[in-house]
Design goal:
Isopropylmalate Dehydrogenase; 2 domains; globular; alpha/beta; 328 residues
Length: 328
């Protein structure tokens, strides 16, 4: 039997998703991993496209053409100009990809970037992919967003919140829950038998013994102690300004960060074109490129497919680790 293919969503069709999808197929067609796209076949120009009836046809088609499970758009696409009328089809692409993975017909879900403002205007009630996927394929715990590039994995405890709200909602319980899920994922999805975690402090200098805020003493440190008591190898809270140097990164497998930018800035600085977003805590494997829709360059042939290719490869690797673990 051929390996189950990866399911790639359409993303925002007026952004760079069609370009990076076609470019990713061109680079991976000979080596894999094989993937199918759930979207409108008319989007993918410059490469041969074949419409398929189901994921089972992907392996045979992939070396010769980009396999597309047709999901036609109601409105023609103009690069750089999203249409609210296409929002239902964009969301349906995500829902169908998840359904294929839950049914065992796809090995993983990879999501192309979406334009959140357009979806919100159409009635989308979630801050982003992570929360939507939690509703579709959650495990009863809040899903966790992990960003990764070669040499660094980071997880923010709070995600799509203003900095003011992130600080007010940060709790010892949320840190413990996120850290526990992260350690489990590193073992199951990445084959790290004894994961080493570090926890970034919230305040400068880890609060300087309370003179720059008491959150690291009263919220973060108790969470670190609880994680350690649960048998997880963890250090912290450590000052974030020295946590991401090359020497520091060599001492841990993943960093637990307190808010969105604390986690994302180092990954995007180190490898903007190759970073990957992976969602932990789902019943399916899910990754995505670590960038947005790039409406300003859509349709101009300037988009770099590196992050999507990395996301496809990581999804295949995680799916293989899970399959091996299930067999064992």
């Amino acid at each position: 039997m051929a390996p189950r293919p990866l399911a790639l969503t359409m993303g925002e069709p007026a952004g760079i998703a069609p370009e990076i999808t076609a470019a990713s197929w061109s680079r991976l067609r000979a080596t894999g991993p094989a993937f199918l796209v759930l979207g409108d076949p008319a989007l993918f120009r410059g490469v041969p496209v074949i419409s398929i009836a189901g994921p089972e046809e992907t392996a045979a088609a992939f070396p010769h053409a980009l396999p597309v499970l047709p999901m036609p758009l109601p409105v023609a696409v103009t690069p750089g100009r999203p249409s609210i009328a296409n929002a239902p089809a964009i969301l349906a692409s995500i829902e169908r990809a998840v359904a294929l993975a839950l049914a065992g017909r796809a090995a993983a879900v990879i999501t192309n970037p979406i334009q959140k403002a357009v979806l919100t205007a159409a009635g989308f009630a979630h801050p982003g992919h992570t929360e939507f996927l939690g509703e579709l394929a959650g495990r009863g715990v809040p899903p966790v967003m992990m960003l990764a590039c070669p040499g660094l994995r980071v997880v923010p405890v709070t995600i799509h919140l203003s900095l003011r709200d992130a600080v007010s909602r940060l709790t010892s319980g949320s840190i413990v829950g996120t850290g526990t899920l992260l350690a489990e994922a590193l073992r199951r999805d990445f084959g790290i038998a004894e994961p080493r975690l570090v926890v970034a402090a919230l305040n400068p200098h880890a609060g300087e013994e309370g003179t720059m805020g008491r959150e690291d003493i009263e919220v973060v440190a108790p969470a670190v102690a609880a994680l350690r008591a649960a048998g997880i190898s963890v250090r912290g809270p450590l000052p974030a300004d020295t946590l991401f140097t090359p020497r520091a990164r060599a001492t841990y497998d993943a960093a637990l960060c307190m808010y969105h930018d604390q986690a994302l800035i180092p990954v995007k600085t180190i490898d903007m074109d190759g970073g990957v977003n992976a969602t932990l805590g789902l019943r399916v494997v899910r990754t995505s490129p670590d960038h947005g829709t790039a409406l300003d360059i859509a349709g101009k042939g300037l988009a770099d497919p590196g992050s999507l290719i990395a996301a496809l490869r990581m999804a295949a690797e995680i799916a293989a680790h899970r399959a091996a673990g299930a067999a064992a």
